[in-house]
Amino acid sequence: MNFIFELLLNAAVLFLIAYLLPSVNIKSYLTALGVAVVVGILNATIGAILRLPLNLITLGFLSFFVRLLVLAVIIKLADALFKGFEVKTFSAAVIVASAMAVAGTLFSYLFHGGVAR
User: Fold this and answer.
1) Model pLDDT, residue 112
2) Rounded to an integer, what distance in angstroms lies between the CA atom of residue 71 and that of residue 42?
3) What is the Cα 51 distance to its own chain's centre?
4) pLDDT tens-digit readout, 55-85
5) 78, exposed or middle or buried, with CB in 10 Å at 0-12, 13-18, 19+?
6) Are 30 and 14 in contact (CB under 8 A)?
C-alpha cells in the first residue's frame, strides 16, 4: 500500500515540477504516473547497481549526493523512454530528483512515524 502512495506522490511531484519548470514537460498525469513507475523500477534495479561503486569510492560519505546523481541519470533515461515526458537539461533532472527526494523523505517522516527508510 505504501508503494502505491509513494508512486502517486512521485507522479504528483513530476507533474508539479513540469508545471513550474519550463525545461520539464509532461503530456498528462497518466504519463507522469507511467514515468513514476518506470523511475521506481529503474531506481530499484539499475540504481542499486550504479550506487554501489560510487558509494564505495566515496566511502559512503557522499551517499545523499550519489543517490541524487543516480536518480537524475534515471530520470534522463526515463526521458528517453517516454514520448510524453521531456527533461531538456541535466540540471533540470537534478532539480526533479531533488524534489522527488524531498517529497519521499517528507512522506517517510509523516507516515512512518519519523523513521526514514
Assistant:
1) 72
2) 9
3) 14
4) 888 887 888 888 888 899 999 999 999 889 9
5) buried
6) no
- Dist CA 19 CA 29 (whole Å): 11
85 close to 19: Cβ distance less than 8 angstroms? no
* Alpha carbon distances (Å) from 66 to 1, 50, 82: 28, 9, 24
The pLDDT assigned to 59 comes to 84
pLDDT at 116 over 80: no
Quick one: 112 exposed, middle or buried, by C-beta within 10 A (0-12, 13-18, 19+)? exposed
